[in-house]
Amino acid sequence: MIKSDEEFDNRGQKITFLGAILFTLVGAYLIFLFSLQVINGSEYKNRATLVSQRTTTIQAKRGEIFDRNADLPLVLNVDSFAISLNPALVPKELLPGVFQKLSAALGIEYAEIEKKVPTSVYSVYQAIEIRSGISLEVVSYIAERIQDFPGVTWESKPIRSYVETGSISHVLGYVGNITQDELQVLYNQGYSLKSILGKSGLEKQYDLFLRGKDGTRFRTVDVKGRNVDSDVRMEIPPELGKDLVLTIDQKIQKLAEKALGPRMGSVVILKPATGEILALVSYPFFDPNKFYTSEANKEFNRLTTDPQYPFLNRAIQSTYPPASTFKIIMSAAILGEKVYDPMTYLLCTGKFELGDRTFKDHVQYGHGPVNLAAALAESCNIYYYTMGQKYLGVDRITEYARKFGLGQATGIDLPNEVEGLVPTPKWKERNLNYPWLGGDTVNISIGQGYLAVTPIQMANVVSMVVNDGKVYRPHLIKEIRNPVTGQAEEEIRPELLYDVQFNDKVLSELRDDMRGVIVHGTAKEVMLQRAVKIAGKTGTGEDGAKGSSNHSWFVAYGPYDDVPNQDKIVVVVQVEKGNEWEWWAPKAADLIFQGVFANQTYEEVVESLHPWYLKDQ
Amino acid sequence: MEKSKSIFSIDLVLLLSTIALMLIGVLFIYSSGANSPHPFEEKRFEYIRQIVWMTLGIILLIVFSLADYNILKEMSFYIYIFFMVILLLTLFFGKVVNGSKSWFGFLGFGIQPSEFSKIATILFLARFCHDNRSRLKEIQYFLLALTIILVPMALILRQPDLGTALVFIPVFLVITFLAGARPRHLFFLLLTLSLVIFLTIATAYAVNKGTAEDSIFDLFVDYYLFGIVSLSLLIIGVLGFFGFRKYKVQVFYWITYFSTILLVSFAATFALRFVLKGYQISRLILFLDPSIDPKGDGWNLTQAITAVGSGGFWGKGFLQGTQSQNKFVPMQSTDFIFSIVAEEWGFIGGLIIFGLFSLILLRSLSIMSQVKDKFAIYTIGGILGMFFTHVFVNIGMTMGIMPITGIPLHFLSYGGSSLIAGALAIGIVLNIHQRRFRV
User: Fold this and answer.
1) What is the dihedral of CA A371, A377, A379, A383, to 10 degrees?
2) pLDDT tens-digit map of A73-105
3) Which SS3 state, helix, strand or coil, does residue B94 take?
4) Interface A:B, Cβ pairs < 8 A
5) Taking CB atoms and an 8 Å cutoff, what residues of chain A touch B369?
6) Which residue of A lies nearest to B326 if distances are taken between CA atoms?
7) What are phi and psi of A307, to 5 degrees?
8) Which among B330, B350, B381 has CB closest to A33?
9) A223, B339, B340, B347, B416 from B344: Cα distances, Å
C-alpha cells in the first residue's frame, strides 16, 4: 500500500511523480472544460440568452371611438407622460431634496412620494412610477432643470381622453388598470398584469377590438436589469386597436340629455327598423376624465357613495313598473286574443271591485263609457282591470308580456344589462311563498305590481308595434374600423331578435290607438311640437302615495305617417320618482321629437316651441 | 560556469509564458471593465493599474532572477520572521476587504501580506528541509517542519481567509516529499486533510438539507455522540500505542495510525464548525448546489458556470461575452477571471491558459532535474505547489467543481499582490535556472 521510504529517494522519480500528478490533473480539468463548453455548451448558451434577455411590452394604441357620422371623435388618446424615479441613481442624502422638488413640480404630497419610494428600495436600481398623466409642460419644466432632478425619468404613456362627457359616458364607459381578479379570468386572452382594460360600457364590451395587440421589445440587460446599449433591437411591433363607429348620433344624444335635464332617469332613442340606438341617456352621469388625474381616488369614492348611483346606466340596468305604458301590451292581447270587441263600450265608474277590494281609477268618478281606443287614449284603468281580470287572465297577460320581450335581456352590446321581471303565479308562489291573487292580476293589468321593465325593453315594445312584430337587437356599434385605412373591417348588420306574428290589423289598430293618446288623450296637453306626427303612450307610476313619488314614462314613435320604417324612430323617456313631480317624460319626448325632426338643438327647440312649462325659467 | 552568468542563458520559455499569462490577464481585465455603465467607475481603469503592476512585476522578476538566490537562502529565516510579524500586524491594523482583514498598508501602498508570506514560507521551509533532510524522516523534525506552515496558516485563518491558508498544505506536502519525508507521515497528513475537507463539506451540506440528524454526519452536530466516538477512538489509539510498545507488532502501529487520523480529522471537523462563520460554510457547499443561496454567492457561481459553458469551442469573441460584458458574473476581474476568458475565447482560451501553465510546469520540472542544490529543488517544488493549487482551486471554482474559496489565479487575476508575488516566484525559478549547475 505505501511504498517504502527508500524507494522515493531517487530525485528523478520524485520529480516525475510530481509532474505526473500535476499533468494528470491538468488533463482532467481540460476534459471537464471540454465537456462543459463543447459537449454541453448549447445548454449553457440558452441559459445565457435567457438570463440576459428581457422583454418589454410596447403598448398598442387603443382604438378611438366616433359617433355615427364618424366626424366627431368621442374618445381619443392624448399624449401624456409618466414620471419615474430611480432611487439607486441618487445619493441617499439627496433623495429628500428630490422628493421635495418632485412634490412641487407634480403637485402631489411629499408623503405620497415617500410612500411610493420607501427607504427599503433606496438602493434598488429600478424606476418607480411616481405619477402618470403628466402634461408636456411639466415634463419640459423638469427636463430643463434635470440637474435638480437626478434619477428622474419620464416616458410617454398616452391616456384616454373622453372628448365628449356627459350622458355619453354611460355608453362609452372608462378604462383602468387590470385587477388581479380580472387578470385571472382574462389571462388566456392575452392580458397581462400591465394591461389597461375597459371597466364599463363599450370600453369593456369591445375591449378585445379596442386594445389591439401589444408589441414586444426584446432587450439585452445586465445583472441589474439596466439596458445594455446595442443598435440591434428586436421588436415585434404592436397592432393598433380598432376604431369604433357608434350608432349614436351625438347631436341627438346631446338633445336627449338636455331634454331630460337634471332629473334621475333615462332616454332611449332607436331606429326600430335596425335596432340602431341613436341616443342612450342616463342621468346622473360621471366624468371619466377625472379618473386619470390625481383626484381619481377621491372622485371614485364620491361616485360610489353617491345615493343617486351615477355609475348606474338606468336605461339598461334599472327596472321600474311599466305603469300605463303596459296598456300597449294589454291592448295587443285584447286585440290578438279577440276577448272583447274593441268597439264595444264599457262603463268606467272610477271603481273596480274584486271581492272585498276596490281598485280606483285616476279619474275619481270615472271616464264614463270607453271602448279600447278611448281606454288607451285616456289610460282608463277600469277598462284594463276588467279586461285583465275578467277576460284575459294572468296567463295570457304574461304570455303577451314575454312576446314583447319583457323579462328578457335585449342583448344590447353593453355589459351588465338586467332582465326585469314578468311575474307569474308560479313565480310568486316560489319566491314570495304566497299564492297569486285576483288583485295581482288586476295590478299587472295596468303595469303595476311585480312587473319590472327596463327603458330599453320598452323601446323594443314600441319597436314591435311599429315594425309589424319584428324587433332588432338594439345595438350601439355601427362598424369596427381599421385605424390606419379608415375602412370598415366589420359592419354590424341588424339582428332579428323577435318576429312575432300577430293577427292582422292588431298592430295597425294599436298604432292608431297610440296616435289617439297624442291627439286627444293623456299626452295632448303637453304635445307642443308640430314637426312630426307621433304616436305613443304615457305612464305614471302610481305605486305608493300621490305627489312626488311617481315614475313618469313616455314611450312613443314617429313619424306616425305611412313612411318607410327606416325613417321612424322610437323614443322612450323614463323619469324616476323622487324628482320634483312635473310629469316630465312626455314633455322631454316632445322636445326630442321636435329637435330630431326639425333638426334643431335643444336650445333651438326651446326657442321655437316656447313651452309653457318652461316659462318661469 | 561563466556561461550561466550571461543574460542569454535566461529560460525564455518560462519567462515568455509568464509574460503571456500576464498580458492575457490585462486583456481580460480590460474586457471585464470595458462596459461598465458608469464612465468613471473604477472598474474601467483596473486594467491600467494591472499594467503598472505587471511592469513592476516584470522588473522585480528580472531583479530576482539576477541577484544570487543564495542571498534569499541565507536570509530565509529573517524573511520568514519579517512576514510573520507583518501578518500579525495585519490582524491588528489591517484593512478589511471582502470580509477578511487581509490588507496591510504602509507608505501609502496597500499589499496583501498573505501572498508574499507564501513565498517567504516556501523559502524558509526549503531551507529547513535542506538543513535537516537527513533527520526529516523523524517525526519530531517532520512536525517541526509542519510548524513552519502552521504559523502563517493560523494567522491567515484568523483574517479569516480559508482559501489562502489551505494553499500552504500542498506546498508543505511537495517540499517535504521532495526532501524525503516518510510517506507514512505525508500520507497521514494528506488523509487527515482530505477527511477534514470532505467531512466539513458533507456535514455542512447535510445540515443545510436538514438530513444531518439521520446520517453519520450527526457525529459532528451532536456533542454527546461526538464525545463517545472521540473517546473510543482515543482509547483505541492509546491501546494500539501501548500494544505496539509492548509487542512490536506492526498491526498495533497501523491501528494507532488510522485511529489517530480519524480522531484528528473528526476533532478538526468538529472544531471547524465553530471556527468557520456561516457564510464561509455556505460558500464551501455552494458548488454542490448553487440553489442554496440563489441570490448571493450561488447566483455568482451559476452565472460564472453559465459564462464558461456558453463560451463553446471558439468563444464569443473578445469583448463579446454576453454574460461577462453585461456584468452577470461578479468579481470577474479577480476571482472569476477565468470565466471571462472561457466565455470570450471558448475552449481554445482555456487550452491556452492551461497550456501556458503547463509550459511553466514543464520548464520548472526540467530545471528541478538539472539543479544540484537541494534547496533550489525544494523551492521550485514549493512554488509549483503554490501555483497549481491556485490554478486547480480557482479554475475548479469557476467550473463548479471546487468550493468558492476566493483565491486568485496567478498572473491573470486583477490585483497587485498576487501578480507581484507570482512574478517574484518566477524570478526565483529563473535565478535558479541560471545557477543550475552550481553545486
Assistant:
1) 10
2) 899 888 788 888 888 777 777 888 888 888 888
3) coil
4) 125
5) 11-12, 15
6) A222
7) -65, -15
8) B350
9) 18, 9, 6, 9, 24
Q: Which residues of A touch B373 (CB under 8 A)?
A: none
3-state class of A526 per DSSP? helix
User: Of A593-607, B306-320, B382-396, where does mean pLDDT reach its minimum?
Assistant: B306-320
Mean of the per-residue pLDDT values of chain B: 87
Residues A249-283 pLDDT 10s: 999 999 999 999 999 999 999 999 999 999 999 99
Does B342 contact A at CB distance below 8 Å?
yes
Pairing relation of β-strands A175-177 and A196-198? antiparallel
Burial B391-415, CB ≥16 within 10 A → b, else e: bbbbbbbbbbbbbbbbbbbbbbbbb
Share in percent of chain A as helix, strand, coil (round to 5): 40, 20, 35
**Can you list the alpha helix ranges (DSSP code H) found in A123-269?**
136-144, 168-172, 180-186, 201-205, 207-210, 250-260
Check CB contact of A50 with chain B, cutoff 8 Å.
no
Q: What angle do CA B376, B378, B381 make, to 5 degrees?
A: 110
Nearest residue on chain B to A53, judged by CA atoms?
B322
Cβ(A387)–Cβ(A398) under 8 Å? no
Residue A455 has pLDDT above 70, yes or no: yes
* Residue appearing with cell numbers 441570490: B295
Percent of chain A with pLDDT over 70: 92
Confidence band, pLDDT 50/70/90 cuts, at residue A179: confident
User: Nearest 5°: phi and psi at B42?
Assistant: -55, -35
- The residues, ordered by sequence, that sit 6+ positions from A48 with a Cβ below 8 Å of its Cβ are B306, B307, B309, B310, B322, B323
Q: Which of B412, B416, B385 is nearest to B398 (CA)?
A: B412
Test A2 with B187 for CB contact under 8 angstroms: yes
Phi-psi region of A190 (alpha: psi -120 to 50; beta: other; left: phi over 0): left
Interface test with A, best of B32, B36, B258, B326 (most A CBs within 10 A): B326
The answer for A232, left when phi > 0, alpha when psi is -120 to 50, beta otherwise, is: beta
For residue A202, give every residue at least 6 positions away whose Cβ sits within 8 Å of its Cβ, in sequence order, or none: A65, A171, A172, A173, A244, A246, A413, A414, A476, A477
B325 in contact with A at a CB cutoff of 8 Å? yes
Select the residue from B299, B323, B379 to test the A interface by mutation, using most A Cβ atoms within 10 A.
Answer: B323
Q: Where are the beta strands (DSSP E) in B158-267?
A: none
Cβ under 8 Å to A: B residues 389-418: 392, 395-396, 399, 401
With contact defined as beta carbons under 8 Å apart, do A197 and A182 qualify? yes
Question: Quick check: B323 and B290 in contact, CB under 8 A?
Answer: no
Question: Per-residue DSSP letters for B315-367?
Answer: -S-TT--HHHHTT-STTTTTTTHHHHHHHHHHHHHHHHHHHHHHHHHHHHHHH
| CA–CA gap between residue A450 and residue A321 (Å, rounded) | 7
Q: Do B312 and A49 touch (CB under 8 A)?
A: no
Could you please report the per-residue DSSP string of B218-248?
GGGT-HHHHHHHHHHHHHHHHHHHHHHHHH-
What is the sign of the dihedral through the CA atoms of A176, A179, A182 and A184? positive
Q: Which three cell numbers stand for residue B411?
A: 498572473
Q: Say which residues have a Cβ less than 8 Å from residue A4's Cβ, sequence separation at least 6.
A: none
Contact assessment for residue A70 and residue A217, using Cβ atoms and an 8 Å cutoff = no
Minimal C-alpha gap between B383 and chain A (Å): 13
Question: Among A13, A17, A51, A226, which would you mutate to test the B interface (most chain B Cβ atoms within 10 Å of its Cβ)?
Answer: A51
- CA A94 to chain B, closest CA, distance in angstroms equals 19
Crossing angle for the helix pair B183-209 and B250-275, to the nearest 10 degrees: 40
Buried/exposed code over A394-428 (b: 16+ C-beta within 10 A; e: otherwise)? bebbbbbbebbbbbeebebbbbebbebbbbbeeeb
Alpha-carbon gap, residue B195 to B211, rounded angstroms: 20
